[in-house]
Design goal:
mainly alpha; two-stranded antiparallel ribbon
């Protein structure tokens, strides 16, 4: 790992944070009870549009109605995606003449895109028509992301309000977030990506002849990829237009497009933290959450970069000559040379921290310790920087747990952001935090016992177990990336992982909105001598420690059977020869 590599990583993160500041203002304007003057003019347009659709934009919903509207809307979206897939053979814009998608894969994909997971048990260019990708999948990229951001607004209102008012209007929140935030940002990014060489055409596949005379004619899949790539990154969706996702040269052709997409992965997650502080009326709260997440992100990034900077055991075992030649470049297996180890490692950590799930390298080819970091970030609930799905909600839930533990330690009634934490509140917190973890562990355990799941593995032993654990971690936490080496299109995994996606999405959102509704009914308490300040580095460290403790206690045994066992069974994992 050269100094230039480390500088590129630092510049990427610095640029993302700088851009997150104005984007946070845009988010706050869309969700705030007291928007700036320019936003009030836009709200007049929004309200008129909603009234034409038969929706009262002034209705202030309770948590149950807010949650019900969100879940029903998402499920209708899933039904729409499923129907388009099953009928795609009879629909237009299908230049390759693709038939209907397998029903189990169609179910998996429908739940996946509606839940902001974008797990792909299919190859995009060989399974989905241009219409399916553009109409069904891309629309859900916008709507599922807007739904996740709407939860941020409802949670912020519940934390700030103390007069019995409700959580706002789900339809107004979703419309504003789509029109004000997601569409403009995605449009600008799509233009930059097209300028950088990302393909965008409806002309269909391109027939071409290879240089070898006897190779014959080949077909190159194309499509309107740039628009889908833009929203898949900004909305932390992650589903690739092509099978190999952002490792494909038509989806991510250069270091320039790679930088744009990397910034996009973390842009809204970082902005969410700052916007949440603004919605609370105390920007320091947002910076404290961002600090806690950064304290978890950087050590995992350092571990991944260190592990991938050395050689895997198979190459190191070839002797001093192979080590001397290959060691300076690190572990390049499964990585694109145009990105290298540093940008591939940064992408792997960013995409699993922020519930994005897109990849520019094959995670299955990472070293055991290099793959452990991204897997563990997903298992934490992807609360690091808070993905647009439900990641920031998870971070606030961990903050509530940290405040509760701090209250127990000092013998004072726990409170968070000036609101008392009651037993019912903590039950909701625990349900929301443990449901995805239980789903991941139970799904992995069941898969190990099912021949159809173990038979879908390409690798035996600890690495095969890691592939299964990674798949369930990805589905249960709405990430969508995969280790690879696992054929997940069979009925058992397609249906089971789809159920895990649904639990990981709505099993967190519903308790979170119930908690927000409970907070909206409480009066804010005046700070006293024993009040725990939640905007200080001390509290940020306490939140990070709570997340770390929960993750270690929940997943350490499973990680010991997978990546840790693989690392120990192959000898020294990294041969650092300079």
């Amino acid at each position: 790992m050269t100094a230039l590599d480390l500088l590129s990583v630092a510049l990427t993160l610095g640029l993302t944070l700088a851009l997150a500041l104005p984007v946070a203002g845009l988010l706050t304007a869309a969700l705030s009870d007291d928007p700036p003057p320019w936003a009030r003019a836009l709200r007049t347009f929004d309200q008129g549009l909603l009234r034409r659709l038969g929706i009262d934009p002034d209705e202030d919903m309770g948590w149950a109605r807010y949650a019900g509207s969100l879940v029903v809307f998402n499920l209708l979206g899933a039904l729409f995606v499923y129907g388009v897939q099953r009928l795609q053979g009879a629909l237009p814009f299908n230049p390759a003449g693709l038939g209907p998608v397998d029903p189990f894969v169609a179910w998996n994909t429908a739940i996946s895109f509606a839940s902001n997971t974008n797990w792909q048990a299919y190859g995009g260019e060989t399974t989905m028509s241009d219409l399916t990708q553009g109409l069904a999948l891309t629309s859900q990229n916008f709507l599922s992301a807007a739904s996740g951001l709407a939860v941020l607004g409802a949670l912020g209102r519940g934390m700030r309000r103390s007069d019995g008012r409700r959580l706002g209007n789900y339809w107004a929140d979703t419309l504003r977030l789509t029109l004000w935030v997601l569409l403009p940002l995605s449009g600008a990014l799509a233009l930059l990506l097209v300028a950088g060489g990302v393909v965008s055409t409806l002309a269909g596949p391109l027939a071409h002849t290879l240089l070898e005379d006897d190779a014959g004619t080949r077909t190159l899949a194309r499509g309107a990829a740039a628009a889908q790539v833009a929203i898949k990154q900004l909305g932390t969706n992650g589903g690739g237009f092509f099978n190999v996702n952002s490792a494909h040269p038509l989806e991510n052709p250069s270091p320039w497009t790679n930088l744009l997409q990397l910034i996009s992965i973390l842009l809204l997650p970082m902005a969410q933290c700052l916007s949440f502080g603004a919605l609370l009326g105390d920007r320091r709260q947002g910076w404290a959450l961002l600090g806690a997440m950064t304290a978890l992100f950087l050590p995992v990034l350092a571990l991944t970069l260190w592990a991938e900077a050395g050689l895997p055991p198979a190459l190191a075992a070839l002797g001093p000559d192979a080590v001397a030649i290959d060691a300076p470049m690190g572990n390049l297996e499964g990585k694109e040379l145009r990105f290298g180890v540093a940008q591939s490692g940064l992408w792997a950590v960013a995409t699993t921290a922020a519930s994005n799930g897109s990849v520019n390298a094959m995670h299955d080819s990472f070293t055991a310790l290099g793959g452990l970091g991204p897997m563990w970030l997903m298992q934490l609930g992807e609360v690091v920087f808070g993905g647009v799905g439900v990641g920031l909600s998870g971070a606030v839930l961990y903050a509530a747990l940290a405040a509760f533990l701090a209250g127990l330690m000092v013998g004072r009634g726990p409170e968070l952001y000036g609101k008392a934490l009651l037993p019912r509140d903590m039950k909701l917190v625990v349900i929301a935090l443990l449901l995805p973890s239980a789903t991941v562990l139970m799904g992995t355990a069941l898969s190990v016992l099912r021949p159809e799941a173990t038979g879908a593995l390409a690798n035996p032993g600890p690495h095969g177990f890691s592939e299964l654990l990674y798949a369930w971690s990805s589905a249960g936490n709405n990430n969508g990336s995969a280790f690879g080496g696992l054929t997940a299109s069979g009925p058992f995994l397609a249906v089971g992982l789809g159920i895990a996606m649904a639990i990981g999405r709505w099993g967190v959102i519903i308790p979170t909105l119930a908690l927000a509704g409970a907070f909206a009914q409480k009066r804010r308490q005046a700070p006293g001598p024993g009040t725990l300040d939640t905007h200080t580095p001390l509290f940020a460290g306490l939140v990070a420690a709570t997340i770390l403790l929960m993750g270690a206690l929940t997943f350490l045994p499973a990680l010991a059977l997978g990546p840790a066992a693989e690392h120990l069974s192959t000898g020294p994992e990294v041969s650092h020869v300079r």
